[in-house]
Design a protein that fits this description.
The structure holds two protein chains of two kinds. Chain A is α+β, with helices and mostly antiparallel strands. Chain A folds into three domains: 83 residues, no CATH class; 110 residues, Beta Barrel (Butyryl-CoA Dehydrogenase, subunit A, domain 2), CATH 2.40.110; 150 residues, Up-down Bundle (Butyryl-CoA Dehydrogenase, subunit A, domain 3). Chain A contains eleven helices and ten strands. Chain A is globular, with a radius of gyration of 22 Å. The two termini of chain A are 32 Å apart. The relative contact order of chain A is 0.10. Chain B is of the alpha+beta class. Chain B has three domains: 113 residues, Butyryl-Coa Dehydrogenase, subunit A, domain 1 (Orthogonal Bundle); 107 residues, Butyryl-CoA Dehydrogenase, subunit A, domain 2; 145 residues, Butyryl-CoA Dehydrogenase, subunit A, domain 3. Chain B contains eleven helices and ten strands. The mean pLDDT of chain B is 97. The chains are: A alpha+beta, B alpha+beta. At the A-B interface, strand 9, helix 9, helix 10 and helix 11 of A face strand 3, strand 6, strand 9, helix 9 and helix 10 of B.
């Protein structure tokens, strides 16, 4: 057993740390803006820099553009990005559909789609959830009917993150209405410019526009955009959901967020001395740090098992549950820490620069962040579903 | 021992309920909070017309002879509809200061304007460095002839953009956090030297940052004795806490009803999700959190007139209970509604946001826990 880094790993850490310091765009630094507040170009800036460097998909096989880093190196890379508060790369292409395409797609599809994913010339979105199909995703009803060399797709998707910018959508559709729920589903790649697609914004309670409804009405999709076999889409869908485990816990980002929380609590005063010095608050932060330490080692144990070829099992659900609980708790404590200024509504859309946001810089948007991260225990398989997975798959209940 | 309401009180509740059912549906409220004004003066006029703004004042003061229980009834119903109009700031707080600390002349001059709906008030007490400590004041009022000159800065003054008059706490003597030396003043928002910057709050209201620069007020602007204002401020903020507790139980009640209803109708895996035991138990915990909050709300509203220690324990205790219960009920209502609970379009998120902010107002759970333990 050994939890420390080797000299080579430390040298690697220094190398990536320097690279980030030298190359992360100045104008994005120190930002805590949510994606709902950023322009499309700002969201993609860091991606494009990493693409040029060849570091955009460290978790992919080398033949498709991966870096060949060890799991420890990838861990260090994530950690250093969080430490520098770089803007997280969009997962839709890099972590979701990309691996599905290089694993299950044909040569033609790989040639056609992988380059656009790597360069970010193609912006992808995820067509999974439907109004009637959330936790029970396999009940989805958007249907695709084969007509010659096309599918005609009808239905609707919802909670589609950043679909307003998307060029492509990977979409689960029902191709066999008579089969058992999971068996009649196919995995289609849909060009968002196709006639019949309407994207409608959903504004969330923090005032941001991150998610959308996508309506599909007689959308013609060429048959060559089908991934793998017809009616086998559920297999690819599950592969996608289970594929990107590293980072799901958000440990490195939470560490940074706790640091930020402590800075707030050191600046906020209770009767003239820092809030951070009060017993009740410092204990809550300590508890949070201990929870995060435990999660960090749990994640490292998962990664170590993965590097020995044992795939991430259902115990990865621990990372989702604990990771999101910690993220939510951090924002909850930040609201407590900023006190009265938590009430202030910071503008989240169409920022003109004229809006008056009172209070210290660190207080702006604190409550909205808290409201926003309530989504994390709902999306990606709600935390209740994750509990079911552990109960069934791990405990055998 | 009797927890029932009088006939008049039931009538009052029915009046509020039918007005709000008629004029304060969620979509209307959502539209109003997005307008430039952010509230409806005509709704305020209706409150006055129906006697709501007179309800807690004694008959000698021109009111209808009610008190805390009437405030509680009104605020619970306001909570159910997420009413943004400044009842707490105007009737409970400003009305409370005038009732409890005002001279006969001040009462005669100012209470009719509250009851008639002509004057809206806001309470400028919090300062950036002071957090929840009501005595932590850098705003000063210096004796100036027979009156005072006020200088300072007040943070997050709720309802101030709508107000004509302000209740302002300022230090007339003593050190920054001394209990002695706190005084309470009435200041016209339009007075020379008062400047405001307005902004929206996350719960759909409006607030202002207010700067006082050599603002001159007369001797008749002082409420209560000079330098002895803190006990009065504490008493009135406890009355505000009692009213906010009632608002919170109204919010929780609506969230619980909506959540149970949703879980009965939302089907996944072929059954209503309310059939899953894990969600059933969650909703039972939400139900109990609400019931316990109702109990503490009754208690604080019944104990406002008791000794300081009893009142402080009841108010701090109620604030802790509604802070914790409000967080639990709010978070779980969102969680059980899934993605829908996250949207601006559904009322669930709005109740959750309001409950979050009620915890922040006048001291959150940690602050009130400490206050309780120091009083006990």
């Amino acid at each position: 057993m050994d939890m420390s880094f080797s000299p080579e790993e430390l040298a690697f850490r220094d190398e990536v740390r320097t690279f980030i310091a030298d190359n992360y765009p100045q104008e994005l630094k120190g930002g805590r803006r949510t994606r709902g507040e950023m322009s499309k170009e700002d969201i993609l800036k860091w991606h494009r820099i990493l693409y040029k460097k060849g570091w955009v998909v460290p978790h992919w096989p080398v033949e498709y553009g991966g870096t060949g880093w060890t799991i420890t190196q990838r861990y260090i890379w994530n950690e250093e990005n969080a430490r520098a508060e770089t803007s997280p790369l969009l997962p839709f292409g890099l972590s979701m559909v990309g691996p599905v395409i290089y694993t299950f797609g044909n040569e033609e599809q790989k040639k056609r789609f992988i380059p656009g994913i790597l360069s970010a010339d193609d912006w992808w979105c995820q067509g999974y959830s439907e109004p009637g199909s959330g936790s029970d995703l396999a009940s989805l009803r958007t249907k695709a009917v084969r007509e010659g060399d096309h599918y005609i797709v009808n239905g609707g998707k919802t909670w589609t993150t950043l679909a307003q910018f998307a060029d492509w959508m990977f979409c689960l559709v029902r191709t066999d209405p008579n089969a058992k729920a999971q068996e009649g589903i196919s995995f289609l790649l849909i060009d968002m410019k196709t006639p019949g697609i309407t994207v409608r914004p959903i504004i969330t309670m923090d005032g941001a526009h991150e998610v959308n409804e996508v309506f599909l009405e007689d959308v013609k999709v060429p048959v060559e955009n089908l991934i793998g076999e017809e009616n086998k889409g559920w297999t690819y869908a599950k592969f996608l959901l289970g594929n990107e485990r590293s980072g799901i816990a958000g440990v490195a980002r939470s560490k940074k967020a706790i640091e930020r929380l402590k800075n707030i609590a050191n600046a906020e005063l209770v009767d003239g001395s820092p809030l951070m010095k009060t017993d009740e608050f410092s204990r809550k932060v300590a508890e949070l740090e201990i929870d995060l330490s435990a999660l960090e080692v749990t994640e490292l144990r998962t990664l170590a098992a993965e590097s020995k070829g044992r795939g991430p099992g259902p115990e990865a659900s621990i990372l989702k549950i604990k990771g999101t609980e910690i993220q939510q708790r951090i924002t909850e404590l930040a609201v407590e820490a900023v006190g009265n200024y938590a009430l202030v509504q910071a503008p989240r859309m169409e920022v003109t620069g004229n809006e008056f946001v009172p209070g210290p810089d660190y207080s702006a948007g604190t409550a909205q962040d808290y409201f926003n991260v309530r989504k994390t225990s709902i999306y990606g398989g709600s935390n209740e579903i994750q509990h079911n997975i552990i109960a069934k798959m791990v405990l055998g209940l | 021992m009797d927890f029932s309401f009088t006939e008049e009180q039931t009538l009052l509740r029915n009046t509020v309920q039918s007005l709000l059912a008629d004029k304060y549906d969620f979509d209307t409220r959502r539209k109003v909070t997005k307008t430039a004004e952010g509230w409806r003066p005509e709704m305020w006029a209706q409150f006055a017309e129906l006697g709501l703004l007179a309800a807690p004042f004694s008959e000698e003061l021109g009111g209808l002879g009610g008190g805390a229980i009437e405030n509680m009834i009104i605020m619970e119903e306001f909570g159910r509809h997420l009413v943004v109009e400044p009842y707490v700031e105007t009737v409970v707080i400003a009305g409370g200061f005038l009732r409890e600390g005002g001279t006969a002349a001040q009462q005669e001059a100012l209470i009719p304007g509250i009851i008639g709906g002509e004057t809206v008030w806001a309470f400028a007490y919090a300062e950036p460095q002071g957090r929840y400590n009501l005595a932590d004041l850098t705003t000063t009022a210096k004796k100036d002839g027979s009156g005072y000159t006020i200088n300072g800065y007040k943070a997050v003054v709720l309802g101030a953009p709508w107000a004509q008059k302000l209740i302002v706490t300022a230090r007339t003597s003593g050190g920054q956090r001394d209990r002695d030396g706190v005084s309470v003043f009435i200041v016209d928002k339009s007075a020379a030297g008062v400047s405001t910057r307005d902004y929206p709050t996350v719960d759909g209201r409006r607030a202002s940052e207010i700067t006082f620069e050599n603002v001159k007020v007369g001797a008749d602007a002082l409420i209560g004795a000079e330098g002895k204002g803190l006990p009065l401020v504490e008493k009135i903020t406890d009355e505000a806490i009692a009213a906010l507790s009632a608002e919170a139980i109204g919010c929780m009640k609506e969230l619980n009803t909506a959540t149970v209803e949703y879980c009965k109708t939302r089907k996944q895996f072929g059954v209503p999700i309310g059939k899953f035991q894990v969600l059933q138990h969650r909703m039972v915990d939400m139900f109990m959190a609400h019931e316990q909050s109702v109990s503490m709300t009754y208690m604080v509203n019944l104990k406002l007139a008791e000794s300081d220690v009893e009142r402080i324990k009841a108010a701090a205790g109620a604030k802790v209970q509604i802070g914790k219960a409000g967080r639990y009920v709010g978070q779980q209502a969102v969680q059980l509604h899934g993605g829908m609970g996250m949207t601006d379009e559904l009322n669930v998120g709005h109740y959750f946001k309001r409950l979050t902010m009620i915890d922040t107002q006048f001291g959150n759970v940690d602050y009130q826990l400490k206050r309780y333990s120091e009083a006990a």
